[in-house]
Amino acid sequence: MDREQLAAFDQVAREASFTRAAIALGLGQPAVSARIRALEDQVGGALFTRGRRVALTALGESLLPYARRALEVLSEGLEAARLAQVGQRGRVRLGTLGSVAGGLVGPALGAFVRGHPEVECLVRAGDHERIVALLLDGLVDLGIVTWPCPEPVAAELQDVLRFHEPVLLVARPGHPVTTRADLAADELVRLGRPMFRLRWWQGQHPLLTRLAEQAGTPVEIPMETARALALEGAGVGFFVRTYVAEDLARGTLVEVAVRDLPPVFRDTALVRRRRGGPLSPAAAALVELLRRQAAALGVLEGGRGPVSAGRRSRGAAPIRRQGRR
């Protein structure tokens, strides 16, 4: 039984006439009759009494509500498929590092939800290893991970967008490190206590780790806890810019320049499985919003290509691999 047969059955029942049903459907009467006969063969009996007046049989009356329900569900399914083709229906699953969930992902995701209210959106946050595992297991369509990915994972993933952002030393206004006009690294070690040790990379950045150790007992805590303590003036730390962008804009945290400290950057990428098939229109729309948000934040890196383990962040020394957030 197919949609055309059910539609003919429904229309004949509405019109109580094969002729009028054929006109309404834009078909010849023989075509309508053939569809009804095919349907009757499948259900095992007559659906209509045929005479001067066409009327439903008991079998036809029992089938009609189910036929109409099937037509309605099929129509909804076809509409959902049409909307999915233009990115207005479907599902998008994104995995993201917690460190970019706010400044980068949050605004882009908000714009996506407003523009695609019928698309189911699932976002999972975690560290680098968790997001990679979700990608490789097919549990998310896209993921933001630290860059570059080590082999052999690199062979399984393909980058879609790349992000390159500075890592800033920040503190609460009035903290001793903010009162020096020309702060040097040795003064930071003396005044920046406690100094939070945060892992923004595929491990610990050797230069920043050394500074934290020289400052005394380093405090290794989650980034959200470190930010809260920094806001209270209970320490200083190196944060990726997008993570503290709102705090800097409000003036609750300030960037501290260190004259003899080279620039430090953190690289990440929006990636997908290389063998995952084409992106859905909805996923492509989210990618475009992430691209725009990254460009607005000044962290979008040009160029697209396969994820590779052969590149190293500009301005960053080699790092010892550990957890990544």
Describe the structure.
- By secondary structure, this protein is α+β, with helices and mostly antiparallel strands.
- The chain folds into 3 domains: 83 residues, Winged helix-like DNA-binding domain superfamily/Winged helix DNA-binding domain (Arc Repressor Mutant, subunit A, Orthogonal Bundle), CATH 1.10.10.10; 130 residues, Periplasmic binding protein-like II (D-Maltodextrin-Binding Protein, domain 2, 3-Layer(aba) Sandwich); 101 residues, D-Maltodextrin-Binding Protein, domain 2 (3-Layer(aba) Sandwich).
- It is built from 11 helices and 13 strands.
- The strands form 3 sheets. Strands 3, 4, 5, 6, 7, 9, 10, 11 and 12 form a 9-stranded mixed β-sheet that branches.
- Strand 1 and strand 2 form a beta hairpin.
- Helix 1 crosses helix 3 and helix 1 crosses helix 4.
- The longest helix has 28 residues.
- It is rod-shaped, with a radius of gyration of 31 Å.
- The two termini are 54 Å apart.
Key descriptive features of the protein:
325 residues, alpha+beta, Arc Repressor Mutant, subunit A, D-Maltodextrin-Binding Protein, domain 2, 3 domains, 9-stranded mixed β-sheet, two-stranded antiparallel sheet, 13 strands, 20% strand, disordered C terminus
- Euclidean distance between termini CA atoms: 54 Å
- The fold-level CATH name of the largest domain is D-Maltodextrin-Binding Protein, domain 2
- What percent strand? 15-25%
Question: In the CATH classification, which architecture of the largest domain applies?
Answer: 3-Layer(aba) Sandwich
- Mean of pLDDT: 85
- The CATH class assignment of the largest domain is Alpha Beta
Largest sheet: 9 strands, mixed
**Please, how many helices?**
11
Q: What level of helicity do the residues show?
A: 40-55%
Structural class label = alpha+beta
Number of structural units classed as domains: 3
The total count of strands amounts to: 13
Whole-angstrom Rg: 31 Å
CATH superfamily of the largest domain: Periplasmic binding protein-like II
Question: Which outline best applies?
Answer: rod-shaped
Query: What is the succession of H and E elements?
Result: HHHEEHEHEHEEHEEHHEHEEHEE
Low-confidence runs of at least 5 consecutive residues = 303-324
